[in-house]
């Protein structure tokens, strides 16, 4: 969330690179790397070993599908804002797309905080998965 906020606030000018853009790239890259690694570990730990290939394929397919939809939405927002606010030479379109990403990430954070159930540990008993 911090990385997206830094990109939305500081941009468009070369003097904003070191105080805003560079820290945002470092924080954003590290955050995505940690989230992706932990998600993979959690998914494969919860899935039976006989289904690991299917689970991995579904996870990667969902990532690709979500990336395609997100990229289309962000490109649409950026293009429509640039059409009315000075064209591609201005930062308004990119800033609008970063504000949209910040809104999505904030919504995800709120939903995970509310609905994530960390008391669920699955165990296999007679071929059935049960909550313990």
Helices and strands, in N-to-C order?
HHHHEE
First and last CA, distance: 34 Å
| Strand proportion | 5-15%
Q: Total strand count, please?
A: 2
Overall mean pLDDT score?
89
Write the topology of this structure.
Layout lengths: L1 H8 L7 H30 L5 H33 L7 H24 L6 E4 L2 E4 L1
Antiparallel strand pairs: 1-2
Helix pairs in contact: 1-2, 1-4, 3-4
Describe this structure in words.
72% of the residues lie in helices and 6% in strands. The chain is mostly helical and 132 residues long. The chain has a two-stranded antiparallel ribbon. A hairpin with a 2-residue loop joins β1 (122-125) and β2 (128-131). The longest helix has 33 residues, at 52-84. The protein starts with a helix and ends with a strand.
Condensed summary:
The chain is mainly alpha-helical.
What attributes does this structure have?
132 residues, 6% strand, 72% helix, two-stranded antiparallel ribbon, elongated, mainly alpha, 2 strands, 4 helices
């Amino acid at each position: 969330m911090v990385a997206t906020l830094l990109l939305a606030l500081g941009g468009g000018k070369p003097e904003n690179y070191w105080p805003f853009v560079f820290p945002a790239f470092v924080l954003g890259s590290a955050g995505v790397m940690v989230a992706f690694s932990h998600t993979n570990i959690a998914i494969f730990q919860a899935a039976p070993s006989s289904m690991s290939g299917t689970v991995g394929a579904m996870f990667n397919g969902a990532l690709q599908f979500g990336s395609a939809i997100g990229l289309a939405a962000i490109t649409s927002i950026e293009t429509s804002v640039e059409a009315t606010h000075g064209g591609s030479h201005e930062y308004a379109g990119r800033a609008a797309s970063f504000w949209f990403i910040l809104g999505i990430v904030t919504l995800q954070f709120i939903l995970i905080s509310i609905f994530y159930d960390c008391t669920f540990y699955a165990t296999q008993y007679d071929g059935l998965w049960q909550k313990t």
